[in-house]
Specification:
Blueprint: H1 11-20, H2 26-37, H3 45-58, E1 62-66, H4 72-79, E2 86-91, H5 94-106, E3 113-117, H6 120-126, E4 133-138, H7 145-155, E5 156-165, H8 184-199, E6 203-208, E7 214-219, H9 223-227
Parallel strand pairs: 1-2, 1-4, 2-3, 4-5
Antiparallel strand pairs: 5-7, 6-7
The chain binds S-adenosylmethionine.
């Protein structure tokens, strides 16, 4: 089987959607080109649009992003945020951090987006639950999503939205037995992650065959959250 995004959605549907999803922001269009030329993975065009629509819909006061790369998705989300909202984005590659900060400054968003150079797995485990986030975008190390889930849920505000990208991993997550052998560990972990999301008592999750596969998980509001007891 040929593994590309066409394994998830048929090529003509993907190209129709991409043809309609035109990037009108000059800086974001430049970053898309830069990412393509330099082989840097950023959100697929249709996932980027989903992110910006969901950000507008949710109007989060605080966003946590895991996996910043060149700052493309954090700039994209920040463009859709209400005034006064903020984003913390985590990245462990110092060159990516440098480029992201430069791009964020060019976008005039240094006041709204803080890039933290850290290993996200460690960083989120130290964050106190008082630091709660209305939206978490998980787009870092795919093989560690499952290890980061407890912290992500702990840090998500009641009613908060957890968006996880690349969960179908070019269709391989859903293809029993035929995936590239060198990807076996990551595929197993993504499967574990999807199982953990779908059975999590505090989450309600939808799996979308969008881009490289995206899950949307809402943290349920408990009676304790609602009534304080
Ligand atoms: C898919 S890219 C992020 C793309 C970005 N969210 C976008 O759409 O513009 C994933 C990034 O996560 C970073 N990353 C991977 N493992 C990480 C970790 N443990 N901690 C922090 N960053 C990590 C990689 O260096 C890479 O830049």
């Amino acid at each position: 089987m040929d593994y590309d995004l066409n394994a998830i959605v048929t090529p003509y549907v993907t190209s129709y959607i991409r043809g309609k999803t035109v990037q009108s922001d000059a800086l974001l269009a430049e970053l898309e080109m830069y990412a393509k030329e330099n082989d840097i993975p950023i959100a697929e065009p249709e996932t980027a649009r989903l992110l910006s629509v969901l950000t507008r819909l949710k109007a989060p006061a605080k966003i946590l992003e895991i996996g910043c790369a060149i700052g493309y998705s954090s700039i994209l989300m920040a463009r859709s945020l209400p005034t006064g909202s903020s984003i913390i984005t985590l990245e462990y590659d110092s060159e990516m951090v440098r480029i992201a900060r430069e791009n964020i400054a060019r976008a005039g968003l240094s006041g709204a987006i803080t890039v933290i150079e850290a290993d996200a797995k460690d960083y989120i485990s130290y964050l106190s639950p008082d630091e709660s986030f209305d939206l978490i975008f998980l787009d870092g190390p795919k093989g560690h999503y499952v290890n980061m889930l407890d912290d992500a849920v702990r840090l998500l505000a009641p009613g908060g939205l957890l968006i996880s990208d690349n969960v179908l991993f070019k269709g391989m997550t859903a293809d029993d037995g035929h995936f590239a052998r060198r990807k076996i560990t990551i595929i197993r972990r993504l499967r574990e992650y999807i199982d953990a999301l779908m059975s999590h008592p505090q989450l309600e999750t939808a799996i979308l065959s969008q881009g490289d596969g995206v899950t949307l998980s809402v943290k349920k509001i408990s009676d304790k959250d609602r009534f304080g007891y």
